[in-house]
Amino acid sequence: MAAVTYEYMNPNYKETLDREWWVTSYQLMPDPEYLEKIKNKDPSVTEVDASCRQLQGSRIEILSEMMAGNPHITAIDLRGNGFDADGLYALVQALKTMPKVAKLNLRNNCCRNQGVEALGEYLKTNSTLVELNINENNLGDEGAKALAEGLKANETLKSLDLSLNYIGDEGAKAIAAMLDVNKTLTSLTISGNEIQDAELRKKCRSRKASGAAFYAKGPSVEGYPSCLKPIN
């Protein structure tokens, strides 16, 4: 099997890999033609579905670099990849240069610490994102505080899913304070957390969950739509 070199990779991670391994092993990256379209900012690619692709480490950084500056992408689905704070930080740097991203699905990754802080800072000035799903990311109270701080200044996000993130009373206090300021957010899902204070729970649930969180279309696989859907 011939090897293939992806010249558009970050030089720090540039690799020459067996094509079969790169394309098919664990369904890692989308196929090369699709990646080239993203790299070349093909206007036909407006939604990026890279869900459940094992995009940890350099892989999420490579994809982020290829999306950077893209004026056409409006929706990004990266759920189920398991990337960490560094991966989220790299993604946020790309998002800052993408003027049309309205929907972002980060469900079931490990986006916390510095990564979530970067996302919170991004939300302070972003004016395009309307749906954010960051369900199942082990944010904890500190992550909730970082996002809440960013959302105090945000005027466009309408739907936010923070379910299953180990958020306790301290994080809930920050979210409640944000809701006093932010009048744009209309749907907040915060179920499956660890909020003990009944009044805080009530306040955090005051924005009705509409069920509008972003999921890519495709067959459901163990709760994750399109996880096994080929991308081309």
From TrEMBL:
Alphabetical GO biological process terms: nucleocytoplasmic transport
Repeat keyword on record: yes
Gene3D superfamilies: Ribonuclease Inhibitor (3.80.10.10)
Membrane spanning stretches: none
Descriptive protein name: Uncharacterized protein
Annotated GO CC locations: cytosol; nucleus; perinuclear region of cytoplasm
Single Gene Ontology MF annotation: GTPase activator activity
Presence of keyword Repeat: yes
Keywords associated with the record: GTPase activation, Leucine-rich repeat, Repeat
Record-linked InterPro entries: Leu-rich_rpt, LRR_dom_sf, RanGap
